[in-house]
Every structure is written in C-alpha cells, then in structure tokens.
Amino acid sequence: MNKNNIAVAVVTALGFIIGLGFLGNAIKNRNKSENTISVTGLGTKQFTSDLITWSGSFSKNNIDLKSAYDELALDRKVINDYLVSKGIKQGEIVFSSVDIQKQFRSYNDANGNYVQGEFSGYNLTQKVSIESKEVGKIENLSRNITEIINRGIEFTSSSPSYFYTKLATVKQEMIAGATKDAKERAEKIAENSGSSLGNLKKATMGVIQITAPNSNEDYSYGGTFNTSSKEKEASITIKLEYEVN
C-alpha cells in the first residue's frame, strides 16, 4: 500500500471515530434532556386593602350658562364643606373640571323621524373624588352619601375601589412560597422514582392574580386585579424544571 492510500485510510478512520464521538454525545445529551422533572408550585396570600378611592358626580341645568355655573359652584361648596365635616382632609378632595353639555328638546315627527328641536338649556356636571388610606372612614362616607342628596343636591355616588400599597412585598412572599412548593413537589416525585434532583434548568413565573377570597372570579392571561373587594387573595405560579440524577 502506497503512502497516499495509507493517508486516506487514516483520515477515514479518524473521521469515523470522531463521528462516533459526536453520535455518542448526542445520545448522551438526548437522554440527559429526557431525564428531567417539570413541576408547578403555587403561592397564595390573603390581605386587606390599605388604600381606597371613591367618587361621585353632581349636576345643574339652566337655560343661562352663568346661572348654571353659579348654582353648580354653590353645590360644590356644600359638598366640600360636608366632606370636611366628616373628617376628610382638604388635600384628599379633588374636584374635576366642569363638563358642559347643550340640551335640546327632541321629538319624533309624524313619520317617526327623530327631530332635534330648539335649544333648552345647559347641563353642567362636575366630579368629586377622594383617595385615602383611611379605608373605613371613606367606606362609611360612601354608604351615607344620601345626606348630601337630602340637602337638595343631585348627587350620584359610585362604588369605592380598593387597593394595596405593599403589593411588591406580597409578590415576593408569594414567589418564595410558590418556589418552595414546586421544589417540594419535585423532590417527592424524584424520591418516589428512586432518583434525586439535579441542577435547576429553568424557572418560569406566571402572572399575579388578585381576586376576592372564596370568589368564582376567572383568572386572565394578563392577570386579574380585583378592586371591588376590600379583602383580597393573591396567587402566583412558578414552574421549575430540574435535572434528575
């Protein structure tokens, strides 16, 4: 066998050996990827809201714009004085700008067509809102707002909205709880299969869901945030993927 043939044989043999090495590593890595455990842990926390917002609106109608505005200003003063008398801080009371709408007498003609008639006056509406950490006080205020109506003011009250200012701390606690729950689940699965956990390969966190306790509210893909209940329950999931030895 000449030198060229020997060289070709050596290169071919080396290529075959290297190819077997790559194949062996591929099989090893494939088996390694299959030897994993994926588990999902849940972290929950119940808490009470520490911030409340509430709002209401009032309006006046008059054929003359200035008269309507003056009447609305009188109502605004009555409302402001009432809220202050109930212990609401002046800095917590916010009045919006005045919304002005022209009113027209409308009717349907003999053919049933809608007809906008002559101008009948102005409707002026203003909104008052409060944001406070005195949750109980504002709750009571919203329930007893008929006292303003009894003073001859056309007032419409909305339901309070409840929030929690320490949500970041709650979220950290839930993440820790969900991670612990997931790891314990993985350890139990590995133990029952006669294996042990290896390195953590991947961790995926879900979105935070905040609902009223013991409610049937649906979770949403982007996260649910209940504002109608003072008492709240938050939850979050953590998905962990471990190697198995």
TrEMBL record:
GO BP: any one term: DNA damage response
The keyword Protein biosynthesis is annotated on this UniProt entry: no
Lineage: superkingdom: Bacteria
Ranges annotated as spanning the membrane: 6-27
Keywords: Membrane, Transmembrane, Transmembrane helix
InterPro entries: 26kDa_periplasmic_antigen, SIMPL/DUF541, UCP029033
Pfam family, one: SIMPL
Full protein name: SIMPL domain-containing protein
Annotated source species: Chryseobacterium phosphatilyticum
